[in-house]
Amino acid sequence: MKEKLKQLELFLKSSSFDRGIRIGFGIAVPLTVLHLLGYFQYAPAVVVGTFLNAPGDIPGSTKRKVNAILVSIGLTMLITAIILFSKPFLPLLLVALAIITFAVSLLSVYGFRASLVSFSGLLAMIIAIAIQKETAYDILFQVALMGVGGLWYLVVSFIFQKLAPVKDQNQLLSDTLLLIGEYLKIRTKLLTKKTKRDEHLKQSLVLQHLINEKQETLRETLLTARKRSGRSHYEEKQLLILLSSINIFELIEAKHLDYKMIDAIFGEHKEFLKASKNLSKIMGNHLIRLSELLIQKDKIPNKDSLLSALAEANLSIKNYLDTVKLPEAREGALVLKNLYDYQELLLQEIRVIRRVMANVKETSKVSLKREDSSQFLTLQEYRLHVLVQNFSLDSTIFRHSLRLTIAIVFAYLLGFLFDIQNTYWILLTVIVIMRPSYGLTKERSKDRIIGTLIGAAIAIGIVLLTQNVVVYAVLAFVSLVFAFALIQQNYKFAASLITISIIFVYSFINPNAFVVIQYRVIDTIIGATIAVVANYLLLPSWEVNNLKQVLLNALKMNKEYLLATQELYQDPSKHKLSYSLARKEAFLAMSNLNTSFQRLTQDPKSKQKEFQLIYEIVTLSQTMVSAIASIGNFISNHQTTPASIEFNVLIKKIANTLQMSFDSFDDTQIKKKVAKETAEDAEEKLLGKYQQLSNLRDENIRLGHTELDTETLHGLQEAYLIANHMTWLKSLSENLQKATERYRSTIVET
């Protein structure tokens, strides 16, 4: 019960619920004011304008939010006027529906915010079909009042932002820490759960994308605000938390270990990994708790459990050495030591977040220069050439726009020919459910139908219990607020609440609520069926055919990240910024590849060509990013020796192998080779350097010099990590090349 109450509190304090209240307030005020002034007949148009222009109000920079709402207002007014003037003439209306649907849905090429403005435009088109206005004066007056409603919502959004200026950022930070905490716990399970590694790895791919998505929005919000007007003290704190969350994410990524090697080293001694696993689990739970406190504003939890677990992890290294004995224990001890160092760094970042949240004065300032910070922003281009580039059947959005256009025109003609009472409900279901990918459309269709049935059942129960219109009004309003609050978190539940709200609104117009419920359910099923069938049959966009460009970008960014890490090894102070930028781009490219793979898993089994091969490529690419991050992380946090010639030879070999993988998609590929003998010789020399240091340490122990100084320890750690990771990366790149060549021959060329 206590946990459920906590979750309820977190929801009621969330920015999602705040957004629901914002829309509810925006709708309730004009209804109330115009009723009191005796102009209630104008209220519906104003409310429609308010409702239509809410979707573009999402977290991000204030400038982009305002621009999105203003564009949305203009677009919805124009579309409403066109549809209302076209309605008396069926051929003209069909042409208008087709052109508007295609053109407006194509705006989604400009990113997520643009897709929400596009949705507002499509929604305006559907609502205009439901509106009955005959004369030009009535139409223009309706459009003007909708414009007033849109501007009113912009004012409401501004007021709410002033009342709670950091709510969206806090929610995003909270979501990010929650996801990272879950991600850390999932990655920890990979260490010892040998039989469930594939399952946990797939879960981690989903979390990776969500984390990258949240961090990108936070970068836009916090760094753009900083560029515009400098930072307030609170924004400084938020930026510190963001930077620490990015560092934690990279650290977790850097510890995607060679699990086969771990299994081979520890074999019968897996119990010595339990302390490290327990520490990561405690840190993951601590991050989750900190994420909750960003919303709850409660007391920071005690850090004793963290420090105790860290001490246990350190002690496990000694216990391992005492049990297995040197020199046999050296390799395992170095693995445990590297793992411990990584977890110690994780704990440092968690403690930074703790100090920031506790308002500790000594917390370090953010030293990122303004000109540097702007390089970390991935800004959406809004130029015409982006639209032109997507004007092709190769574009997923273009195919979706054509598919949606055909589905909308077909749905309208179906309603017209069979004289369906509320055709616009079918159209509404189509635009709400239909997505570029078949899997997501099918999932939303299922959720929409189930949600509608649940909502209808609840509405029937309430209608049977009471015939009170005041109860209907209250329930319609409350369910609408909660629907908007939940639409991103639980679409099925939101669909139930929207159904309840619509049924009770219509109950004011038509006292026979059962007729309304019946039509609502039937129209939803018809609309969902049209959406799913259209996605399957009309210019289907199977993810296996869209994967090539995403994969090419991941290979390119992997190579650039590898070369940036080489530069970091040469001169850490000079190349820190370029390394961080390359890391960000590699992580984003991997996130996009993971997302593409997730969409592939939602497609019908018959359309998932070479699923195992694609999964192999995704996991190899992911492992490469993590292995590179591990080297970069070690260089960033340790005093290292100069990069050896052998290291540079292997970097060149791995980079060329990645380039060959990239080129394998072209018929005119140019293979730049590093002699096999040269690479193998470099590999042997790197391993030989570690062996030399290891032998020297054995000799010192034999002579009685058992104390291990920090310099020797770091030298052993560096030699071991560089030798093993470079060998690992070379093997991964060669396997990736073989896999991409098989991919080209089985998928691209067929």
Automatic annotation (TrEMBL):
Location within or outside the cell: Cell membrane
GO molecular function, one term: transmembrane transporter activity
Keyword Protein biosynthesis set for record: no
All copies of domain Integral membrane protein YccS N-terminal, residue ranges: 75-325
Keywords: Cell membrane, Coiled coil, Membrane, Transmembrane, Transmembrane helix
Transmembrane segments: 21-42, 66-85, 92-110, 116-132, 139-160, 401-418, 453-485, 491-509, 521-539
Domain Integral membrane bound transporter: 411-533
Pfam family name, one: FUSC-like
Entry coiled-coil feature ranges: 665-699
Record membrane topology: Multi-pass membrane protein
One GO CC term, this protein: plasma membrane
Family that this chain belongs to: Belongs to the YccS/YhfK family.
Protein name: Uncharacterized protein
Lineage: Bacteria, Pseudomonadati, Bacteroidota, Flavobacteriia, Flavobacteriales
